Amino acid sequence: MRLQRVLEPEVMDSEQEAGDYDAIDNREVNEQFCADVLAVAPAPRRALDVGTGTALIPIALCRRAAGVHVVAIDMADSMLALARRNVERAGLASRIELARRDAKDTGYPRGFDLALSNSIVHHIPEPLETLREMVRVVESGGVVFVRDLARPPSDADVLRLVEMHAEVPDGVPAPERNVYLRQRALFEASLRAALTVEEVNELIRELPFSSVDLRMTSDRHWTLVGRVR
Question: pTM (2 decimals)?
Answer without folding.
Answer: 0.94
